[in-house]
Design a protein that fits this description.
It contains two helices and no strands. It is an all-alpha fold. It is elongated.
């Protein structure tokens, strides 16, 4: 589903050179990065450390 949204957004911006599999891989990597960021925030909340600037 996210890959389809990415394809639509890219097409709306004139990008037509990515295959569906490329979009899927990009979305997979973005989700991984978001999860890492969320885990970092959760860890900071538990430890009480402030966010880096």
């Amino acid at each position: 589903m996210l890959a389809k949204l990415l394809e639509s957004e890219l097409a709306a911006r004139g990008v037509k050179s990515l295959a569906a599999s490329d979009c899927e891989q990009i979305v997979e990597r973005l989700v991984e990065q978001i999860n890492d960021i969320e885990l970092g925030f959760a860890a900071r909340n538990v430890t009480g450390k402030p966010e880096p600037e």
